[in-house]
Model the fold of this input.
Amino acid sequence: MSLIATIKDLASRHLPDVVAIRRHLHRNPELSFQEHETMAYIAAQLDLLGIPYTSGIAGTGIVALIEGLDPESKVTALRADMDALPIKEVSGRDYGSLHEGVMHACGHDAHTASLLGAAYILMQTRALWKGTVKLIFQPGEEKLPGGASLMIKEGALQNPSPASIFGQHVTNLFAAGKVGFRSGLYMASTDELYLTISGKGGHAAIPANYINPLLIASKVLLVMNEKFMDPKTKLHTAHPTVLAFGKISGMGATNVIPDQVFMEGTFRTMNEEWRAEAHLLITQIAQEEAEKMGGKAEVKISKGYPFLINDEPLTKRAKQHAIDYLGAEHLIDLDLWMAAEDFAYYSQVMPACFYRFGIRNESKGITSSVHTSSFDIDEEALRTSTGMMAWLAIAELQS
Done:
């Protein structure tokens, strides 16, 4: 039996175990940097497999090592994130969240289960490949400053240092059994914007006595949209960009003009020079437009994750390995995506490849997007995700 056939067989044999792990994690979600029970559960699974590990990295992270033949010859890494979101799950699922208002709505339960499934396969095949695979179970992907940045600072990529790293993420955009890759720029940096627009409050019936901060906020939004966005593509013409505000709070009333308005938004792009320039431009526009209308603007920008770039030689190899494992008909070419992911921190310091595996199944009604209360996965996708992670690691070690 070929190595690929062996991995596929093991992925199928262990699918019930991986589904059980995913369901346990789904029932017991924990928010970012609070994944204490999740860490303990992963550690117990690694103990059962006899895999050495270090826990408590960045608070709740775990790094484990699986050695094949000649373990010092080459090292690669596989990463999974573990945290859940503050979302109330729809009712009626026998594996639904037991923690009110907390849900694995972004598939991190599937990511962690997949990495543990890959660990099963790697342990059972370690006499058939050379090198070392480092497993990184990472907390806090959903919350700044991002668990990846903290894991790196605390030495997760040292002793030994991997030559490459792979990460995967669920997507509802294509069916279970398919995977998607993109070389080069893939995902955006992300920054949080907090604007305080100050005017002068008063009775709505006496316009001469107040400076309406809601009008100022409206003008700031319109000018920013005009300056930043191409009207056809909705993206900045020079660099892919998203500038959007999702929250405005005035706390006035029908006849009460408030003193201040608070605005919250996001800025995303894929160029660090433009990112720095844009921060200055956002502040300048807000302050100048507010002053023109007799008010003031205070701008706070919380800098988030960098852009994610998939190393081109590594991703080219990974795509070929995926074709060898699944067949070309199961591969999808991914588009640029303006969402953000803290795996980007790894991609900034080493050759990295971040790909997607499909979890959609329309016949089962599994079509909901991530970050929604009805999100779910076709668990058949775990057969692909576990086998792919193991195969990519082994194939990269032999390349």
